[in-house]
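Shipment paperwork, digital attachment
Item: protein structure file
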Amino acid sequence: MKFEELNIIEPIMKALKEKGYEEPTPIQEKAIPKVLERKDVLGVAQTGTGKTAAFSIPIIQLIYNKDKQHKGKPILRSLIVTPTRELAIQIGENIREYSKNTFIRHAVIFGGVKQNEQVRAMKSGVHILVATPGRLLDLINQGFINLREVKLFVLDEADRMLDMGFIHDINKLIDLLPKQRQSLFFSATMPENIVSLSSKILNNPIKVEVTPASSTAETIQQYMYYTNRDKKQSLLAHIIEDKGIDQALVFSRTKHGADRIARNLKKVNIDASSIHGDKSQPQRQKALKSFKAGNTRVLVATDIAARGIDIDKLKYVINYDVPNEPESYVHRIGRSGRAGEEGVAFSICEPEENEYVRDIEKLIGQRIEIVTENPFPQTDKPMTAAEKKEWQKEKNRRKQEFFANRKGKGKGRGDRDSKPRSEKPKRNKPKKDVKAKSNQDRPARPERKVSSEGDAPKRNDNRNTSKPEDKKKSTKPWTKKKRGGNTGGSQALKDKYRWPLEK
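Attachment content:
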């Protein structure tokens, strides 16, 4: 099927041809006609299947047909809500590309940056708004955004939205939206809580499912390395060099882990950078831009930060930590093998993650190939339940000890005990002597220089040495008469200020 067969308007078709897109992906082929028919859609598709275009193209077309006769400030017609800043930016870039031959205006708002530019964009008017939940509700509460004219609502990456704890924000947004609207709901997986949420948002939806929610793309080759915990970093560097990987996206379970992995890769001359939630938005955008441009070899990311990373022809994904949620594995390796391209996913598994691998294989319905040519094979055994309990106890103890030491050593304050001020012993410092110094304690005044004749140096003869008595009295054109008398009218003023000639 060709895009022309989907009844897409000429301005959008022109943009698609300029991008080299001729045939829609399966999700686009199924979803676009239903959205154009103004049906609610429940889309089940993993990342990399083209679902962003599946909802953005028909939204642009619907608004174009509705508002092409409208004159004046643009009216907000569509709201697209997404969990992360990176994904919001990616959707905004797609909308800009598809709508460049139309009058459609859009804005992208997210937290982590100042709101001035975003507020300015909303005041000038937009047709489509792409937003993350937190900043969106913030600007709504400040009165900068009004949703009363929204006719198209999109909730993207719904499963990740719930994983990140946005359920309360989503419920608030649903209450603020008009009841009469068209809603589109997209998710890579469909657990029970997602089905429940979709039933609150959608009205008699058409379900569009391209692949089973638990499957991975057939174009992605998957390999598993088993190793010990203390050998993971060495194994990661070995994989990158041994496989001749030019660029790879590496996943870490934690933010601190992402920073540590990037630092250690740099130590072995592998250029790397990290992105996660603690990084500022400019830092994240800079790292992502450098990676997309090919200037950074390895980008280390957490699951949340990786949402929205859309890199064409990214071949390699490496799981430094095996995710404890099988669905996250599907999301991660979906970053490679996009749009039918070949992808490769490597996973590094330590003993405590062996059980996670079994859960993943159960979800995806296939065995992951184990790499036997491994210079750092797994020799340690997983901990027993009692050992895990003891290990967690020791971990918590060290954590408390670490933060206690940090609290005791404040910046620039030196070591301080945690006793209240009333219990601390008073310091017996000698009081400073604040008495004025006597003349005897003061240093002697330096001697005055004298001339060769033994006299003090002569003063400047040009000095004015006249005495105050010698000064001439100032002469004024008039003199003030002594006070006295009570004359009235203009004569009184004349007598008061008489000119000298009239004396």
